[in-house]
Design brief:
Elements (H helix, E strand, L loop, with lengths): L1 H17 L14 H11 L2 E3 L2 E15 L14 E16 L3 E14 L7 E14 L3 E14 L9 E15 L5 E13 L11 H5 L1 E15 L2 E14 L9 E11 L6 E14 L7 E14 L2 E13 L7 E16 L2 E13 L4 E4 L5 E4 L2 E16 L2 E14 L6 E11 L3
Antiparallel strand pairs: 1-2, 2-3, 2-21, 3-4, 4-5, 5-6, 6-7, 7-8, 8-9, 9-10, 10-11, 11-12, 12-13, 13-14, 14-15, 15-16, 16-19, 17-18, 19-20, 20-21
Length: 425
């Protein structure tokens, strides 16, 4: 009986520390003041004086990577052992029933066995405030400091230090049925270190450092329990820092609508479709006008889990020939619960990069030609997860990634195996 009691206590502690990772606050979409207040009261279980704490601990990529710099197939790949350790804590201060102060602190250590230069501490810090006035008027403000070493988009072959400062303010009107309407203002300054992609002579900082200023209107209408129909419209101004890159200054109009599903239930996630006008202010550069969309769904049916992943959007390109590229990404996954404690996983992701303007390239015979560049990448992922307690599990994933391009010397392959910790068994 004593042993059973100790086991139960350990399980409760693990569940409290690990099982309530604040996934619900990671999304950018708006949540009503009353909903967020209730989540803090229900789930931030630890108390230090007036502060309510919500800790979490993340662990991923504990394993081996056979091509950490994603060298081309003509090059010599460098392999290494890796691990990423990421503790996280949110602290809340509730002032009466009308004011929520919160701070997110998320340090992250990236470990590499031999490539000492890739070892690094990343960090994300976000203080935020929400104030409720006149029963349903909400004022919000936040600042995010993000300093990470990562591959910022599908063009990046190497990890690069990325520094972001984001200021955000908003005003919303919440209704009695949890529906909301409001406006958000956001300003982000994005900077990269002075590194180059392989074989190139221009720094990432020269080509991509910029400021983004956005105004966004949002409407959320509750159509079922914690499920919302939403419509958003935004305008963004993109201003590049380096003088030689100011011809990339651009603007974008975007309208989206979709459904956000509950965080708990058989269907979770969101799906949206919209229309985007993206144009460089330099009229000599190509722009884009067309559909954009995003889907991130998790569907549970008895012993099966299905994942749907889709995204179509415009990204700024590193390459001088193009201001941007259009990326289409399609993905799906299947999970099967072989036992109550063991889950088998498989997923497939396929993406295409479309460039609007031709590339001027040098051929092996020293001549030059213009080509319509087309890149695509595929990732197969196999793995399993073993339940520890509640929805917390540990697992192993094997990733097979390859990137093909009609640009000569740009094909790449990568295989990695890594352990991870998940709160979504």
């Amino acid at each position: 009986m004593a042993a059973m009691g100790k086991k139960r206590i350990v399980s409760i502690v693990l569940l409290s520390i690990l099982g309530f990772a604040p996934v619900w606050l990671s999304a950018q979409s708006y949540r009503s003041f009353s909903w967020e207040m209730q989540q803090v009261l229900d789930r931030a279980r630890f108390r230090i004086g007036p502060f309510r704490l919500w800790p979490a601990f993340n662990l991923r990529d504990v394993g081996y990577d056979d091509n950490i710099y994603r060298q081309t197939t003509e090059g010599v790949p460098i392999s290494d052992f890796t691990a990423t350790i990421s503790p996280q804590i949110r602290a809340y201060l509730l002032v009466g029933h009308n004011l929520i102060f919160s701070v997110l602190e998320n340090p992250e250590y990236m470990y590499f066995g031999d490539q000492v230069g890739e070892r690094r501490w990343n960090n994300i810090l976000t203080p935020e405030m929400k104030l409720l006035l006149l029963k349903n008027l909400v004022l919000s403000g936040s600042y995010t400091y993000s300093n990470r070493r990562r591959r910022a988009n599908s063009e990046f072959d190497v990890r690069a230090n990325e520094l972001r400062h984001t200021y955000r303010g908003g005003i919303y009107l919440d209704t009695a049925r949890e529906s909301s309407v409001g406006v958000t203002f956001e300003s982000s300054k994005i900077g990269y270190e002075d590194v180059r992609l392989p074989g190139q002579d221009t720094y990432l900082s020269q080509r991509l450092n910029r400021e983004e200023r956005t105004i966004r209107s949002e409407i959320y209408y509750q159509i079922f329990n914690e499920g919302f129909l939403f419509i958003t419209g935004s305008y963004t101004d993109f201003l590049f820092e380096a003088r030689e890159s100011q011809s990339r200054d651009s603007y974008a109009y975007e309208v989206n609508s979709g459904i956000r599903f509950p965080l708990l239930g058989r269907i979770r996630g969101s799906v949206s479709l919209g229309f985007k006008n993206f144009y460089p202010k330099n009229s000599l550069k190509s722009g884009y006008s067309g559909m954009v969309g995003r889907a991130d769904l998790d569907i549970r049916i008895r012993r099966f889990g299905f994942q749907v992943d889709y995204e179509r959007d415009v990204r700024f390109s590193y390459w001088q020939d193009n201001v941007f590229f259009l990326e289409d990404r399609y993905g799906g996954g299947l999970s099967f619960y072989l036992f109550r404690f063991l889950r088998l996983d498989y997923s497939l992701s396929y993406g295409e990069l479309h460039y609007p303007d031709t590339f001027f390239v040098r051929l092996p015979d020293e001549s030059y030609a213009e080509i319509d560049r087309m890149d695509n990448y595929t990732t197969h992922t196999l793995g399993f997860a073993y339940r520890i307690v509640g929805s917390t599990a540990v697992g192993i994933r094997i990733n097979f990634w390859h990137h093909d391009s009609n640009l000569i010397g740009w094909n790449r392959r990568n295989t990695s195996i890594g352990g991870y910790l998940t709160y979504d068994f």
